[in-house]
Amino acid sequence: MTGTVWGGKRAEASPAKGKSGHAAEDQDALDLAADWADICQGLKKDLGPQLFNQWIRPIQLGAFNKDSGTLELFLPTEFSANWVADRFADRLTLAWKIARDVRHVRISAQPGRRAMPDLRLARDNTPTRPAPVLGDSGRVHGHATEGASAATDTLALASIGLDPSLTFPTFVTGTSNVLAFNAAQRMAALEAPQFSPLYLKAATGQGKTHLMHAIGHAFLANHPRARIFYCSAERFMVEFVQALRQNQMIEFKSRLRGFDLLLVDDIQFIIGKASAQEELLYTIDALLAEGKRLVFAADRSPQALDGVEQRLLSRLSMGLVADIIPADIELRRSVLEHRLARFTSVDVPGDVIEFLARTINRNVRELVGGLNKLIAYAQLTGQAVCLQLAEEQLTDILSANRKRITIDEIQRTVCQFYRVDRQEMSSKRRARAVVRPRQVAMYLSKVLTPRSYPEIGRKFGGRDHSTVIHAVRLIEDLRTRDADIDGDVRSLLRQLES
């Protein structure tokens, strides 16, 4: 019997006689999961899909103690656990009370989750951290011994929040990010920068976090004994709240102000936290007064941070605000080619690279993820990478990135470009001056729309799908050996995608 949690309690399943303890535990777990599925249905209806997907869906069921009536619920991070506990604890407790005999719901971060960098003090009141240094070869060296293992070095970097793979040499530059890249290098240089703080502004997946990690690596290479800390705004708030609750604010202030380089990512998440904002403001003032370096990153400019007091806004924007605009197609090609250098055993044709660069245009992270997925699939299945495989395996990414271009729009643009009448797209005329534009329009319809070959054929005067396939393959071939045709197609692509 399933029943909903909003209507009454679920009938408890009784283990049959002779069942083992493990079987009974398994049945309890199944019942608990079924109850949670019912609760989720009710919460999704009450909260709406956006709130539900962001905060409730990530919840994992923990143990249920029947004696105390306590159920444990886990979330991926401390921040999300605190958020859900503050806003939804009563609602969750009520729902579980209706579903079964749950008297208390305990909400916490998932045990065994990846630990965040620690800010605890050493006995001499200096911030604790390993002191790794980047050697000339790019390998990370520890101070303990020259022969320290790479695993130990990587662990040392992780303890201060830096990803060893995110360095300046692995960052691909173009016109859209060169200002931010140069400013980041200047921030990490031996000599003091002309500006501080540096504020990196970019949409998701455009490289601002990569640059922050790269600054940390280069700064450590140039200043081996420097004290550095990278954290997210979420981590800053968690540390701040913990210090406040434990009456350790003096130690917290001392820790933060002891660093030579402070990197705070996703600063937009500090919106509305008045006390945390005030502490961050004082920390900025203290570090700047001592000539320390600060880097912030966010998905919007300082002036667009609603809920942030004016004094903090002025501090965030007093140095240099460096925008990283969405990558243009040239940079997207460069990113793919740079990434492809890691996979020397895999052959990815140029038309696939061009297709990915043109189609996955929302952010660089999705672009690299799409290439990784395509290569992994080809390696695991033994298939060759081709345009058809890319279209089949990257359907979700491609559909999310594609501009909604219609076949009618393509036909209209092609007719204007080649100066032919629109009716020629559906006519039976086979004059070369008409056939070639028609074939180009069919090719673009396949490249820029999710329509199938038969659907495209119907839009071109009811032509058979084999005619469309022939046109697409012909234009693909002509682009490789006819510079004029390739130039025409590139011009049309720019017009249609702009």
From TrEMBL:
SUPFAM superfamilies attached here? P-loop containing nucleoside triphosphate hydrolases, TrpR-like
**Record region (Domain I, interacts with DnaA modulators):** 1-126
Where, by residue number, does ATP bind?
205, 207-209
The places in or outside the cell where this protein is found are: Cytoplasm
Residue ranges occupied by any AAA+ ATPase domain in the UniProt entry: 194-326
Name the segments for region: Disordered: 1-22
Q: Which residues form the Chromosomal replication initiator DnaA C-terminal domain?
A: 406-475
Q: GO terms for biological process?
A: DNA replication initiation; regulation of DNA replication
Matching CDD domains: AAA (cd00009), Bac_DnaA_C (cd06571)
Q: Which SMART domains match?
A: AAA, Bac_DnaA_C
Task: Please list where the region (Domain IV, binds dsDNA) is annotated.
Answer: 379-498
Q: Please name the Pfam families in this protein's record.
A: Bac_DnaA (PF00308), Bac_DnaA_C (PF08299), DnaA_N (PF11638)
Question: What InterPro entries would the database entry show?
Answer: AAA+_ATPase, Chromosome_initiator_DnaA, Chromosome_initiator_DnaA-like, Chromosome_initiator_DnaA_CS, DnaA_C, DnaA_dom, DnaA_N_dom, DnaA_N_sf
The molecular function terms in GO held by this entry are: ATP binding; DNA replication origin binding; lipid binding
Principal location: cytoplasm
Query: What's any one GO cellular component for it?
Result: plasma membrane
What family does this chain come from, according to its entry?
Belongs to the DnaA family.
Q: What does this protein do?
A: Plays an essential role in the initiation and regulation of chromosomal replication. ATP-DnaA binds to the origin of replication (oriC) to initiate formation of the DNA replication initiation complex once per cell cycle. Binds the DnaA box (a 9 base pair repeat at the origin) and separates the double-stranded (ds)DNA. Forms a right-handed helical filament on oriC DNA; dsDNA binds to the exterior of the filament while single-stranded (ss)DNA is stabiized in the filament's interior.
Q: Give the comment on domains.
A: Domain I is involved in oligomerization and binding regulators, domain II is flexibile and of varying length in different bacteria, domain III forms the AAA+ region, while domain IV binds dsDNA.
Assembly behavior? Oligomerizes as a right-handed, spiral filament on DNA at oriC.
Q: What is this protein called?
A: Chromosomal replication initiator protein DnaA
Source species of the chain: Novosphingobium sediminicola
